[in-house]
């Protein structure tokens, strides 16, 4: 697959239209920032992409073909991994067990036995320079390390789309630097990364494209190189829009 597109996505909760015709298109080998103020609809959009919420309208396409996502398993099968702000890791289990959770039982895919899983887990955490044993309990790892384990898990499941929901909200500056190095590497390897944030400096550091939402509405998409910080802020808060994007 080369590109993922969400078009005209609508989602209503009782009393609130969380998404009202939202578009997002992300290509392999790029980082696409999804921005918007608190409540703009960013998390709702990715929960639709990951099969957690059912959409009320719109379509999802991979390479121009419509796909159905009715469950997290559908999303995973299409090669999409979402890393939430609240991690989906199991603290009592080891890093290896977390990275390959469920794979052992199913016995499907390229990785089937414990030895192979440990080897692959070692490779992955080695790549991330974590300097911890793959047998360490996830509950004993720092938030930054858990972030890396989540990414390793996404890579371990052969995903080509990785969504990160505000990944730097609870990590140290040093961990952030490492995360950005890893994102850069993933991008060069052809991953498509959706990067949710409301930190402007990060967008200019890491993203190639940007999409802005406001109150559940799609406001704009652009290459990051063609927008200024001022333009992004104005589109997020909705002032002087006609002056900025005419
Ligand atoms: P963001 O991630 O951009 O901060 P959200 O997607 O979390 O925004 O929320 C968008 C809107 O949808 C908000 O008005 C929020 O209160 C509402 N919302 C999100 N999830 C639910 C839910 N499960 N039930 C009802 N309303 C929700
Ligand atoms: Mg929020
Ligand atoms: Mg959110």
User: What is the CATH third-level topology name of the domain at 3-85 and 159-244?
Assistant: Rossmann fold
Give the helix proportion (percent range).
Answer: 25-40%
Count helical runs. Answer: 10
The proportion of residues in beta strands is 25-35%
* Beginning-to-end CA distance, first to last residue: 34 Å
Instruction: Give the radius of gyration.
Output: 18 Å
CATH class of the domain at 3-85 and 159-244: Alpha Beta
Describe the global form: globular
The string of secondary-structure elements, in order, is EEEHEEHEHHHHEHEHEEHH
What class would the helix/strand composition place it in?
A: alpha/beta
Task: Label the CATH architecture of the domain at 3-85 and 159-244.
Answer: 3-Layer(aba) Sandwich
Could you characterize the architecture of this molecule?
The protein has 246 residues and is an alpha/beta fold. It has a domain at 3-85 and 159-244: P-loop containing nucleotide triphosphate hydrolases (Rossmann fold, 3-Layer(aba) Sandwich), CATH 3.40.50. The protein is built from ten helices and ten strands. The protein has helices spanning 42-49, 72-77, 95-99, 103-106, 114-127, 143-156, 173-188, 200-206, 229-237, 241-244, and strands at residues 3-13, 16-27, 30-35, 57-62, 65-67, 80-83, 161-165, 192-196, 209-214, 217-223. The strands form two sheets. A six-stranded mixed sheet has the order 6-7-8-3-9-10, with helices on both faces. The protein has a four-stranded antiparallel sheet with strand order 2-1-4-5, covered by helices on one side. A hairpin with a 2-residue loop joins strand 4 (57-62) and strand 5 (65-67). Helix 5 (114-127) packs across helix 6. The chain binds adenosine-5'-diphosphate (ADP) and magnesium ion (2 copies). One magnesium ion is lined by residues 38, 43.
């Amino acid at each position: 697959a080369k590109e993922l597109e969400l078009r005209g996505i609508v989602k209503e909760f009782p009393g609130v239209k969380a998404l009202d015709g939202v578009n997002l298109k992300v290509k392999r080998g790029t980082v696409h920032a999804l921005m918007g103020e608190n409540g703009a609809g960013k998390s709702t959009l990715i929960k639709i992409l990951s099969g957690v919420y059912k959409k009320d309208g719109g379509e999802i396409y991979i390479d121009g073909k419509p796909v159905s996502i009715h469950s997290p398993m559908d999303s995973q099968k299409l090669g999409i991994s979402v890393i939430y702000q609240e991690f989906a890791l199991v603290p009592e289990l080891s890093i290896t067990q977390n990275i390959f959770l469920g794979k052992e039982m199913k016995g499907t895919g390229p990785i089937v036995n414990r030895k192979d899983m440990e080897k692959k887990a070692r490779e992955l955490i080695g790549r991330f320079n974590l300097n911890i044993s793959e047998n360490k309990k996830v509950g004993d790892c720092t938030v930054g390390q858990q972030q890396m384990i989540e990414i390793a898990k996404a890579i371990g499941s052969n995903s080509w789309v990785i969504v990160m929901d505000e990944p730097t909200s609870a990590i140290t500056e040093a961990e952030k630097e490492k995360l950005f190095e890893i994102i850069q590497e993933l991008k060069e390897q052809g991953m498509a990364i959706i990067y949710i944030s409301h930190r402007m400096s990060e967008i200019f550091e890491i993203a190639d494209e940007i999409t802005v939402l406001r109150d559940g509405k799609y406001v704009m998409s652009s290459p990051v190189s063609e927008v200024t910080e001022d333009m992004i802020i104005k589109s997020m808060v909705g002032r002087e829009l006609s002056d900025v994007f005419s």
